[in-house]
Design goal:
- The protein has 2 domains: 193 residues, Fumarate Reductase Cytochrome B subunit, CATH 1.20.950; 162 residues, Lipocalin (Beta Barrel).
- The protein is built from 7 helices and 13 strands.
- The relative contact order is 0.09.
Length: 370
């Protein structure tokens, strides 16, 4: 039965309810993890998921409201006290209002921060307002307040449903349960199973995070045909790799350009100029690869994209991989043409004073994420 009756919810209303429940609980976990995670490419991905699912939740809630208005609503038990009727009505209105307001405040917050919203990395959403610090603070506070109120309302909602089922022994909860099983214990088990299944893509491959104290990112340029070594002192590397379970591997690297150090005050001043790295305008370089090919045991080729000084180009990086328990070592090297990324522009582009080829060498110590 698709449509509602005065005695029971229809199949579509039940579907909307449980999809909304799964999205809301998933969003609570995802939002909390995204906030707590340290700044990294994975944190950015978590926020994309959070924003995308937030807009999806808004869409489902609006569809659910339209369906509810076009259908009869099952009546509450006649023996309920007047205060219970009023509480049910108020909680219903508040839940819908919050589920609509939360995605909107998140959207406004991103607009005020001048951060684009790209749903599932594909669909751009328009900016609602111009960047504004005051609006940022207001929307951030509103989003948090709505979250706390939503958490409290969900606790009350679940407690009331269980009270109806186990204490009052009426059909308020049972008529919203899937027809296959009317036992809330089995429904809860099914609900948890759906959430776990939805998170399955994250379970493929082991996630490794950097041990900064034991890692290095070095480069070797040539200045007037003499070696000119340097290092990047601030960088982050995350690897999702499991040789026994390939297919969901990726490498994410983010380098703070201002941390470049050529062990020479003169060189360090020069390479921060607009003709060279220009970290004030291009503060980070990033490499992202989702295609890792096993060349031989313990050796891989990562095909990805390097973004440096506003230029994106495909780059292939060969590296060796060795893991033992909760620790892993990633070592590799590559050669880059600095001119392809605008490093050393203008008169430096064709100058023989600084060679175009730059050798990069990295040794990354990683630990399995818990």
């Amino acid at each position: 039965m698709i449509r509602n009756t005065t005695e029971s919810w229809g199949a579509l209303a039940k579907l909307f309810h449980w999809i909304t429940a799964a999205l809301v609980f998933g969003q609570i976990v995802l939002g909390w993890v995204a906030v707590c995670w340290r700044l990294s490419p994975l944190k950015a991905d978590l926020y994309v998921w959070h924003k995308s699912l937030g807009i999806l939740t808004l869409t489902v809630v609006l569809l659910r409201l339209l369906w509810r208005m076009a259908n009869p609503t099952p009546a509450l038990p006649a023996d309920m006290a007047r205060w219970e009727f009023r509480c049910a009505r108020v909680s219903f209105i508040l839940l819908y209002a919050i589920l609509i307001a939360m995605p909107l405040t998140g959207w406004l917050l991103n607009s005020a921060l001048n951060i684009p919203v790209l749903l599932f990395w594909t669909i751009p959403l328009p900016t609602l307002i111009a960047p504004d610090d005051a609006v940022t603070r207001m929307m951030s506070g509103a989003h948090l307040a709505l979250f706390l109120l939503l958490a409290a309302l969900l606790c009350v909602h679940i407690a009331a449903a269980l009270r109806h089922h186990y204490v009052r022994r009426n059909n308020v909860l049972a008529r919203m349960l899937p027809a296959l099983r009317r036992d809330p214990v089995h429904v809860c088990a099914l609900f948890v199973g759906v959430l776990l299944a939805g998170s399955a893509p994250w379970a493929h491959g082991a996630l490794w995070t950097i041990d900064r104290s034991a890692s290095s990112m070095e480069f070797l340029a040539k200045f007037e045909k003499a070696p000119a070594p340097g290092v990047f002192r601030d960088f982050d590397v995350r690897v999702q790799l499991d040789p026994q379970n390939p297919g969901h591997d990726r490498v994410d690297v983010r380098i703070a350009i201002a941390s470049v150090d050529m062990m020479s005050p003169s060189f360090n001043r020069a390479i921060r100029a607009p003709e060279w790295f220009h970290p004030e305008q291009y503060p980070h370089a990033e490499f992202h690869a989702t295609e890792l090919e096993s060349i031989e045991p313990g050796r891989y080729l990562a095909r990805g994209t390097l973004s440096l000084k506003g230029v994106e180009r495909p780059v292939h990086v060969s590296f060796r991989w060795k893991d033992a328990g909760d620790a892993a070592l990633l070592e590799g090297a590559l050669v880059l043409d600095r001119a392809a990324f605008g490093i050393g522009s203008g008169e430096w582009l064709v100058s023989s004073v600084v060679a175009r080829e730059v050798n990069i060498k990295f040794t990354i110590k990683l630990r399995r994420a818990t």
